[in-house]
């Protein structure tokens, strides 16, 4: 067997192809809403966070961006009034990015098409039990390779 036929290379290649293909399919709806992929990712992470905000360092940790990269993205979103920065009361060096009502409305405008695209090009291709297993597998891998990906997110209280 050739070293180029290693199934690990196949796994990485397939993952890269899938991500590139899904991004390509979803980009038109985001562009129609005036958002880049990274701007949408930033806004949706804020929308799904407690009080619709995250410390800038936690936001950087959750995305594929450096601290300076997330600062530039938040600067652009702030100029469009989609987010605001708020000072951290307990740490003067830290600040929060917080979703504005205008940012929430921009997301709500693109969300139906985005969800349709996810259903068409990703989740809808798998039966529910296979999707549940796949999501569990993705979380397992994510937690090893990006342990800070859930930084700033609190777990919901368990109801007993």
UniProtKB/TrEMBL annotation:
SUPFAM superfamilies the record matches: Winged helix' DNA-binding domain (SSF46785)
Domain HTH marR-type: 5-143
Short name of any one Pfam family annotated for the protein: MarR
Gene3D superfamilies the record matches: Winged helix-like DNA-binding domain superfamily/Winged helix DNA-binding domain
SMART domains (alphabetical): HTH_MARR
PANTHER family for the chain: MARR FAMILY REGULATORY PROTEIN, TRANSCRIPTIONAL REGULATOR, MARR FAMILY
Record's protein name: MarR family winged helix-turn-helix transcriptional regulator
Species in which this protein is naturally found: Microtetraspora fusca
